[in-house]
Design goal:
Distance between the termini of chain B: 62 Å
Strand content of chain B: under 5%
Shape of chain A: elongated
Shape of chain B: globular
Helix content of chain A: 10-25%
Largest interface: A-B, 74 and 65 residues
Radius of gyration of chain B: 23 Å
Order of helices and strands of chain B: EHHHHHHHHHHHHHEH
Structural class of chain A: alpha+beta
Oligomer: heterodimer
Number of domains of chain B: 1
Largest sheet of chain A: 4 strands, mixed
Chain lengths: ~270, ~400
């Protein structure tokens, strides 16, 4: 062999290559910034996300479980029309009376959500006289302050928009599903058509054009209240809601700090 | 315990109680079971090799190269299940180009590349370089060219040069031990960091993963070493096997202790998830957790290996060999059951803690039996090729620094 490489030389070149690869993350910040601006979440050109702060709150006492919201959501957002994918859904809680002779204050809790509530709810199999109380709970993305899904996304395809929405860039998502596992509320699903993670975007394409989300628009009882906290209207319904009602969030012990507030929630709701 | 309002819906897998609708279909299936399993075998096999290199356990020298080659075979396969399960595998490089640093999963590419390039391949190269030079001289044709390429042009085999190889190899192994811990502890952290899932979100998870990895890697090397010797009709080196059995036993004790501690803590702390987790363990996971992982994968090998430790002198060599082989094989299967229980078990119950969904693996398909089986077999195929070229039958392992026989004349 005419030329013998030295160990130092060979390892030096290898080190150079590895070093070069490691410096790539620096480029990431630039890319990520661009990525957020052009996130294909459906906002029109000229929309300034820093001038809004969107929020939805739920008044459980007003929900009648008609399921129109879940259906409207599927139609509006092209969610696969099978009972295993939902951006929003309705849960029915039936709390039975305590068994006679016990000192319990309430009995068993039964929960269901057939087809997310889209077809309404069939009559309960629990006889009427055994039911202590029953109510419906609409579920959607909880818009967490400390969103575990955003934290978990390995490529930054999921991000917290400056206007409070938690969005996914479907053109950047690699479809690993880690965010779906990380969401404590079961709000994310793996879209079998796009092969990416998907979730409630607050109908981003609508709200950024001055419309309400489809579920809010269609709700016949006003159980879903939606607004922009940076641009409150006179006698703003959300501000009135948080002033007049006792509100709670889902699974507060997990520290995700959900922004979606529920009024009239019972302790059985998870 | 988890009553259902009997409102069955078509197109939905069987479920009990209440499950959030998006949780009805399992997201991660057998591919994500195989990934931590394979990675664990890599880490475990490497740790076994490091016992020779760093801790100078001479008795284990016969398995040194085998364990490194085993680690390499499995490491080459490790990213495949991950890649196959992605919705968009063509975007996989984004995980390295634009890693989101708060995500444990984003570290995969770096941890993997570090381990493969900076640890395993370098260590193998330093260990083999002198042999490559010798073999490239003694072999002709393609084989000779291959060995020559593997020398990377460094053909100096003078004594100081070989001594330097040994020293650098040792340094890399020293770096390699924490790297192996990082590789698999990191896999444990992927699950342990999911606070949404009480079955996963657990501070002990990375440590349990590390020790179960050591257990599975050592056990696999025991099985492979004995099987290869049987295949090549070479008498078993009982001193070496005894030593491996000893380390397997110790690792198993720590692993079982940690997993036991996990359960003790869960049962005692008894947070809101304990009811559903108990139902999960005794119901859906009865066969894989209680029978497979705990009984066959832990208790039986523990008793067998423990008995050998206590009564080694009274048990004849052949019986001992068989006890080691059976224990090691059970451990290898038991750790697979453990990975299954973690990954699949963690998705069978609802995060509403009110019910269970069900899971049936398909035969073909992306996450089916065939792909899974293929991915489990593939590392063994790679290993067979590696053994043919880098650990031939007549190449009795020399004490470090000497040259082994030319590999071309395998029996």
């Amino acid at each position: 062999m005419s030329k013998s490489f030295s160990r130092r030389g060979v390892l030096g070149s290898l080190g150079g290559i590895v070093g070069g690869l490691l410096s790539l993350p620096v480029a990431r910040h630039v890319k990520a910034a661009v990525q957020r601006v052009f996130a294909s979440a459906g906002a029109p050109e000229g929309y300034d996300a820093t001038k809004h702060w969107w929020l939805m709150v739920i008044d459980i006492d007003r929900c009648i479980g008609c399921g129109l919201c879940a259906e409207a959501c599927k139609n509006e957002n092209h969610v696969p029309k099978v009972p295993t994918y939902f951006r929003t859904w309705i849960e029915r809680y039936i709390i039975k009376k305590p068994r006679p002779g016990t000192t319990e204050t309430r009995g068993e809790t039964l929960v269901d959500s057939p087809n997310g509530g889209i077809d309404g709810f069939p009559p309960s199999l629990v006889p009427r006289e055994e039911i202590l109380k029953s109510f419906f709970v609409p579920k959607l993305c909880n818009l967490c302050h400390q969103s575990p899904c955003t934290q978990a996304c390995p490529v930054g395809a999921t991000f917290d928009a400056p206007d409070g929405a938690v969005l996914i860039d479907p053109n950047y998502c690699i479809g690993c599903g880690f965010c779906i596992q990380a969401c404590p509320y079961g709000c994310r699903y793996f879209n079998p058509e796009t092969k990416t993670a998907d979730k409630c975007s607050l109908c981003y394409h609508r709200i950024t054009r001055g419309l309400k989300p489809a579920c809010v628009e269609i709700c016949p009882t006003g159980a879903r209240i939606f607004g922009d906290l940076k641009n409150p209207v006179p006698d703003d319904p959300i501000l009135r809601f948080v002033r007049d009602k006792k509100v709670q969030t889902l699974k507060p012990h997990l520290g995700t700090e959900p922004r979606v507030l529920y009024a009239g929630m019972d302790k059985e709701v998870r | 315990m988890f009553p259902a309002l009997a409102t069955l819906v078509e197109g939905v897998p069987h479920f009990d109680g209440f499950v959030y609708p998006n949780e009805l279909l399992l997201l991660w299936s057998v591919l994500i079971v195989i990934y931590p399993y394979v990675t664990g075998l890599v880490a475990g096999a490497f740790i076994l090799a490091s016992l020779v290199r760093v801790f100078e356990v001479k008795a284990l020298e016969p398995v040194y190269r085998l364990s490194l080659l085993t680690a390499l075979s499995f490491l080459l396969v490790a990213p495949m299940p991950l890649l196959l399960h992605l919705g968009h595998p063509e975007r996989c490089l984004q995980i390295m180009m634009t890693p989101h640093l708060s995500s444990p999963m984003a570290m995969f590419g770096f941890v993997y590349a570090w381990y493969l390039m900076a640890v395993l391949l370098l260590e193998l190269w330093f260990d083999y370089r002198k042999d490559f030079v010798e073999w490239s001289r003694s072999e002709v044709g393609l084989k000779g060219i291959m060995y020559r390429i593997f020398t990377l042009g460094v053909e100096d085999v003078s004594e100081p040069s070989v001594r330097l190889d040994a020293r650098l190899g040792r340094i890399i192994t020293v770096i390699g031990i924490p790297s192996a811990f990082l590789l698999h502890g990191y896999v444990g952290f992927i699950f342990g960091s999911i606070k949404a899932n009480p079955w996963w979100g657990n501070v002990l998870m990375p440590i349990i993963f590390i020790f179960s990895a050591m257990v599975s890697g050592i056990a696999l090397c025991v099985c492979l070493y004995m099987a290869i010797n049987w295949g090549r009709r070479i008498p078993q080196d009982i001193v070496c096997i005894d030593m491996m059995g000893k380390f397997l036993f110790y690792a198993l004790v720590i692993d079982a202790g940690l997993e036991g501690l996990d359960w003790v803590h869960r049962l005692y702390a008894a947070d809101e998830s304990i009811h559903i987790l108990k139902t999960l363990a005794s119901g859906k996971l009865f066969y894989t957790l209680l029978v497979g992982q705990a009984c066959m994968g832990t208790v039986v090998p523990f008793l067998l290996l423990g008995a050998v430790q206590l009564f080694r002198k009274k048990i004849p060599t052949l019986a001992r060999e068989r006890m080691y082989f059976v224990s090691a094989a059970l451990v290898v299967l038991g750790v697979f059951a453990m990975r299954w229980n973690v990954v699949i078990g963690g998705q069978l119950f609802s995060k509403s803690l009110r019910g269970f969904t069900s899971h049936k693996m398909e035969l073909a398909g992306q996450e089916g039996w065939l792909v899974g089986l293929g991915l489990i077999i593939l590392p063994f195929v790679i290993l067979t090729v590696l053994l043919k070229y880098f650990l031939p039958a007549n190449a009795v392992l020399p004490p470090r620094g000497e040259t082994s026989a030319a590999p071309g004349h395998a029996v």
